[in-house]
Every structure is written in C-alpha cells, then in structure tokens.
Amino acid sequence: MNPLAGCLLVSALLFSVGIAGALTRRSAILVLAGIELMLNAANLNFIAFWRFGPHPEFLTGMIFVIFSIAVAAAEAAVGLALILAIYRFTRTSDVSEITEMKG
Amino acid sequence: MTLAFLILALLTVAGGVAAMTLRRLVHCALALTVAFAGLAALYLNLGAEFAGLAQLLVYVGAIAILIVFVVLLTRGGESDPEHVFSPAGLAGLVIALAVFAVLAWAVMTSAVAHGAQSTPAPQTSMLQIGLTLMQRYVLPLEVIALMLTAAMIGAVILALREKPTSPASPSPNPELRAR
Predict the structure, then answer these.
(1) Is this complex's ipTM strictly greater than 0.90?
(2) pTM of the shown model
C-alpha cells in the first residue's frame, strides 16, 4: 500500500466516524461537529492528491483546501448561531426533541 | 507510509472516535480539538505547510473554542448523560459502516492503490501560494471575502437576543436599531 492509499483510507475512516456521529448523536452541537469532521476528511483527500498528484506546482488542491477551511469557518459560525437561537426558543439542543416542523 | 504518518493518523482517528462517542459534551469538544490538531500535523507531514498552519489557526484556534462556548451557553454539560444516542442510532451506525466499506473498497481496487509512488515532496513557498491566490484565484478570493462578511453578519443577527417587540415601534427590527 502506497502513501496515497494510506491517506485515502484514513480520510475514509474519518468521514465514516463523522457521518456516524452526525447520524447517531442527539446533541445538535455534536451533529455539527460530525459534519466538520466530514469536511476535514475531504480536505485531507485534497491535500493527499495535491501531494501525490502529477502537477503539484499548480497548487490546485492546496488552494481548494484554503477556500474550504474558510467556508467551514463560516458554516460553523452560522450553524452554532442557529443552535443558540433554537436553544433560546425551545430550551433544548436535543435534535430528537425539536419537533416543531415535523409533518 | 512512514511511522510518523501512522502515529498521526491513529491520533486523528482516535480523537474523532472519542469526540463522537464520549458522553459529556465538553469532553467531546476537547477530543474534537485533538482530531483537528492531528489533521493539521498530517497536513504538515504531507508537506502542505500553509494548509496545516491555516487548519491550526482556524480549527484549533477558532472553531474548537466556538464549540466550547456554545456547549457552555446551551448548558450541554448538564444534559442527561444516559441518553446521548438517538433512537435511530443503530441505523446510523450501519449507514456509516456501509459508507466506509464502499470507500475502502473503491480505494483498494482503484489504480492509485497500486504502483509504488515515492515522489519527492513538492517545493512550495509562501510566495508561490500568495501569487497563485492573488493572480489565478483572485475572483474566488473576493467571493470568499464577501461570504465571510455575510456569514459574520448573519451569525450576529441570528444570535442576537430577541426583545419583545412593542406595537408602537417605528422600526420592524428593534434589535437591529438598538445597535
């Protein structure tokens, strides 16, 4: 197994851990944390393909990761503000108790 | 695959697993910080210095602290530690395992897993990254700047405490006017 496959496997493992957390935890904060882990797994893939790809001098993967980190920061800020607003409205951050919009 | 890579990968995955399985939310946030720091070290190990330092600054420095603040503000530490997993948790676990199986199968059967690649680390300087960011990717950079501004204003407006609106208020948004 070469280094690229190792990176890809670590990234797949991290993505699975993130999706398991986002799907199984009750706390909305940890659901957001799971989504952040999935984003980070994708970033690790970009870095690995940039490092072991054929044209690292174009810096495509690196620049994509920098933009992705900026987007993730904005997403975390807005998501955590949303969790705060929902908590203020329902006095809970448990996603299985927030059933206002359940059909 | 070097020993350093294995140790860092183990640290990162262990941090992620701990963040998703621990019962107290503050412990989860701290384990998440370990996972983010391990990822930053992995980026440094792969030769991406700028991305690793950006990861360290943004994730370990900002997002982890933000998560800890929200945990404390929502009194997550006092939540019932007996019921941390949702009723449909088993289905979520099965879905995650299936996702990992598909991803691992795709990686191991693809052409990139075979063939010995031992390319030397690409030489990138901060000057090169800055020039690329300012010349070829200047339009995405401006879009990101606009998006960060919009996200900041949106987060502030969302997190503002709502005041009871009086019917005689001249402005439809008294909390905005109060700033």
Answers:
(1) yes
(2) 0.88
